Amino acid sequence: MLYLMRHGAPVREGLLLGRTDDPVTEAGIAACVRRAAGLKVAAIVSSDLMRTRDCATAIGSARGIVGEADRRWRELDFGVWDGMRPADIDPAAFARFHDDPDAAPPPDGELWSSLLNRVGNALAVLPSVPTLVVTHGGAIRAALADLCGFDRRQTWAFDLPYAALVSLRIWPGLDRTVQIVGLST
Questions:
Q1: From CA 19, how far away is CA 181, in angstroms rounded?
Q2: Which of 110, 112, 133, 172 is the most buried (most CB within 10 A)?
Q3: Minimal CA–CA distance to 78: which of 92, 91, 94?
Q4: Which CATH number fits the domain that encloses residue 163?
């Protein structure tokens, strides 16, 4: 089993937080710990940013598991938009980004295809035991694109609020098969 969890609520909600290393609230950590209750995992991985790492550490400490931080699980880098409210960004530029994030990435930001590539690389090295990955909304969407073959628009067809959990069953092999068995929001 693979579990993909979005971090808890950051201190400054409503911002594009890609590489910005904002802390998570205590309530956000508690929400992730509650969401993880009952999961049978042997490994925990997170992005290296504190809003994911702190949630993963709290979940792991309750189970005696030391998590591993992997920067490939970071959120999309929003470049000059990082740390901004979407309402403060030129609406036409933001719309172009949403329509085609490779053709119109944030200024000095990361391409969607680059996020897909690095998350795909991170997925390839996950341990072959039940694993919880505490990460970001964009990285979860990139993982679902890689694992399930979703196109970019399909990855936005569902909401991933803070502390959301996607549960996946994976049958490895040449023709890897993946089934979403749960979405908890």
A1: 30
A2: 133
A3: 94
A4: 3.40.50.1240
* 133 domain-assigned: yes
Tokens of residue 115, six digits: 């996020």
Instruction: List per-residue pLDDT tens for the chain, 185 residues long.
Output: 999 999 999 999 999 999 999 999 999 999 999 999 999 999 999 999 999 999 999 999 989 999 999 999 999 999 999 999 999 999 999 999 999 999 999 999 999 999 999 999 999 999 999 999 999 999 999 999 999 999 988 988 989 999 999 999 999 877 889 999 999 99
Nearest to 57 by CA among 24, 90, 83: 24
The DSSP output letter for 142 is: H
Which helix (DSSP H) or strand (DSSP E) does residue 180 occupy?
Answer: strand 177-184
Q: How far apart are CA 117 and CA 142, in angstroms?
A: 9
The alpha carbons of the chain give a radius of gyration, in whole angstroms, of: 16
If phi > 0 it is left, if psi is from -120 to 50 it is alpha, else beta; for residue 95 that is: alpha
Token couple for 68:
């591993």
- The reply to whether 15 falls in a domain is no
